[in-house]
Design brief:
The chain contains 11 helices and 5 strands, in the order αββααααββαααααβα. The chain has 346 residues and is mainly alpha-helical. Strands 2-1-5 form a 3-stranded antiparallel sheet, covered by helices on one side. A two-stranded antiparallel ribbon has the order 3-4. A hairpin with a 5-residue loop joins β1 and β2. The relative contact order is 0.11.
């Protein structure tokens, strides 16, 4: 399913290299498990020829034709409304709102446009693309969801629904682009992807001033959000013990090492894995998808280079032939593993 999304719908392996958003330059997606265990994908897509937020703001200020074409493209790739000329939300029955699990209408059918519009409207209703308040919206507040009034739910929803209606797409003085929104509870989606894959999506355009920067932080957190890594946990605990050196003055080295190992074992033992995660691992399904290749940097060597006063490199151990023991041989310096071209910006 992910391969079809990337190779066909994003067009990465099509001969023309064109997809629903344009020509894709790079992509990076991370698989995450929800609290209930189901897997979903967070993916970043870079487009060829894309401008920076500052360039977009400057061009929109001086070039009305560019602004018109940009807004037209944005309105075509991300929608915040039900399909035009499709069934109204009030007319969708309970049957329409169930999982469809059926093929979309074939494009060669004579009445394809009509069938597709109806199909897409039913999909959007079935996959909860129209936001409805639930416990997740208010998990960070004290009061229970059932005790909140309708007005309080609209005011306190952490996903900020309902949203204000926007008749036409526009850009403000700060460079933030406001998409056309004709439905206050509709989550952003690409019609082709939603109609074909029949699943809930949340698409956002990252190229809009301070809003783009906020999204960058949000996406970086998700991209780096993975299971606890043993090396990272051990290093963090070691730093904490170093900061508490005076209080740990009476503990010998072996006691400290034992504390670290016991804590790490407890953290790993208590980690919960869903059935989907286990099955995905057994089937060797990747936990991330990308066309890029990254240089390996050893965590311990990186920390020793960044903060040598806290993370001391391990002492050299030699064997009978005056060579470092295999398990303690010095790893390459992290900066030595980075291609020379990147050193200019580091």
């Amino acid at each position: 399913m992910v391969d079809q999304l990337i190779n066909v719908f994003l067009g990465f392996k099509r001969e023309c290299r064109r997809g629903v958003f344009g020509r894709v330059k790079h992509y990076y997606g991370v698989v995450e498990a929800q609290n209930r265990g189901s897997l979903h994908l967070h993916i970043l897509v870079w487009l060829e020829g894309a401008l920076s937020p500052k360039q977009i703001q400057e061009r929109c200020t001086i070039d009305n034709e560019f602004k018109t074409r940009l807004f037209s493209w944005l309105d075509s790739i991300i929608k915040y409304e039900l399909p035009k000329d499709g069934p109204l939300e009030d007319t969708l029955s309970a049957k329409d709102k169930r999982s469809l699990l059926s093929r979309p209408p074939h494009p060669d059918l004579p009445n394809f446009e009509e069938l597709w519009t109806t199909h897409l409207a039913r999909v959007l209703a079935a996959v909860s693309q129209i936001h409805a308040h639930n416990d997740t919206c208010f998990k960070k507040i004290v009061r229970a969801f059932s005790l909140l009034t309708a007005a309080e739910r609209d005011q306190l929803c952490r996903f900020f629904y309902p949203q204000d209606l926007v008749p036409e797409t526009y850009i403000n003085e700060d460079g933030r682009i406001f998409f056309r929104r004709l439905h206050r509870f509709m989550v952003g989606h690409n019609p082709i992807i939603s109609g074909a894959f029949q699943c809930n999506t949340d698409g956002k355009f990252v190229g809009s001033g301070s809003f783009g920067m906020a999204l960058s932080v949000y996406m970086t957190n998700y991209t780096a959000k993975s299971s606890l890594d043993s090396a990272i946990v051990m290093s963090a605990l070691a730093a904490a013990l170093h900061a508490l050196g005076k209080e740990m003055a009476n503990a010998d080295e072996e006691q400290c090492r034992s504390l670290l190992l016991k804590t790490l074992n407890q953290m790993n033992a208590r980690r919960e894995l869903s059935g989907q995660q286990v099955a995905s691992s057994i089937l060797a399904i990747p936990n991330h998808f990308t066309d890029l290749h990254f240089v390996k940097a050893y965590w311990s060597s990186t920390l020793s280079w960044l903060t040598p006063d806290i993370f001391q490199p391990p002492p050299a151990v030699v064997d009978d032939e005056d060579r470092p023991a295999p398990h303690l041989q010095t790893r390459p310096h992290p900066m030595e593993m980075i291609p020379p071209i990147w050193n200019r910006w580091i």
